[in-house]
Amino acid sequence: MSSELTLLHFHRNLRLHDNAALHIAAGLDRPTVGAFVFPPDCNPRQRVFLRQTLAELRGGLAALGIPLHVFTGDAADALNGLLARYPFAAFVSPLPVRRAADERLPAIYRADDALPVLSVRPDGLPPNFAAYRTAWLQQARQAEILPPPDAAAWQARQTRLPAECRNVPPLPDVQAVPLAAQGGEAAARRLWSDFLPRLPDYPLHGGFPAKKGVSQLSAHFCFGTLSVREVCRDIRAGGQDGAAWLDGLARRAYCRRALPFSDGLLELTAKGGRAALHWLQPPKMIRETDGSGGETLIRWQEGRTGVPIIDAAMRTLNGGGSLHPALRRLCADFLTGRLNISAAHGEACFAARLTDYEYAVNHHNWQQAGRLNNPFAESLNLDPDGRFIRRHLPELAHLPTSALHAPHLAGSDVETNGYPPPCV
What we know:
Layout lengths: L4 E6 L9 H9 L3 E6 L6 H21 L3 E4 L3 H11 L2 E6 L3 E3 L7 E4 L18 H12 L10 H8 L26 H11 L6 H4 L12 H6 L4 H10 L5 H16 L6 E7 L2 E8 L12 H9 L5 H13 L4 H14 L4 H11 L5 H9 L7 H8 L4 H6 L8 H4 L20
Parallel strand pairs: 1-2, 1-4, 2-3, 4-6, 5-7
Antiparallel strand pairs: 7-8
């Protein structure tokens, strides 16, 4: 068997277009084997989203001649299985990997898709978000995308791949759950094509959950089915600024930089005469929470707090795994600031439900929670005509807008169909 193979590790870059890892592997000009390992803390909705995405990605890579091996369990153990089975000369990964000084080990190539923004100040500390955002937007306006994969070159290269490397097991079965976002690069590109003409209206409509104001691409950016560089190029090509919308992408990048090893730090060493990976820092995961939140926490989780905008938001989250950014902040502030329940409980709840859950982003957002907003006033700001509340709280859909946001103040003669009074 040839010893000149490349192991191409996919992580949060599940696409063919503008993929730094795929581009690096092409430049190495070796037969290539692809691998993906389900994140250890991905929730049921993410598993469905990932399975859809991986089915499409596996088909796209197969057209290039690249087999994609998909595993569950510990990433280091899974990749070690491939390293032990086949003699690889190179390992390409989006994750940070340190390599021991041993010439027998495969060469390491880091495929970082992030825009090249300095992640630390001269004193070694992370910059504040405002400074990072300014630098990130400057890079976004200059970003160039990579050329698409050369199918003919890949197919010729892959003829040298040993036959046994091509045998990939079926994708793992996943539990069927309701999902608001369809996985896959094709779905991401459709959403982007739909949103791009609406981008100029984002500052006007993006803050209202009932309107079609957001892109619905968050899960796709979480797992990299759409390239940030590519959307920045499209915005430039259309002569748009897009800074208000790009703020969300800048914040995701900032969270990842603030916790640079949240997805783990690997080391490649020689073990028993073979190359082997192990975790220098394992992926960060949400800690299990105790039951200290009590019945009030359960009411918040299930959308039964008696505050319509909060309950409509939480039922949206429970129903499809997606939640408008403004409602995430409002629900987090309500739990921590009004109900006085630890942010750890909310962080764990969102981690178990959001399709776009990512430790660094989720943890950062919950660290910011705790403002003492008036949820009834915020309800009027976010959903002035009550369309969002009526959509998700059918028991209150008959109420006039004047009573909808705070039905407990509407009087005892108003029928609320068993909707509870506020828990605070």
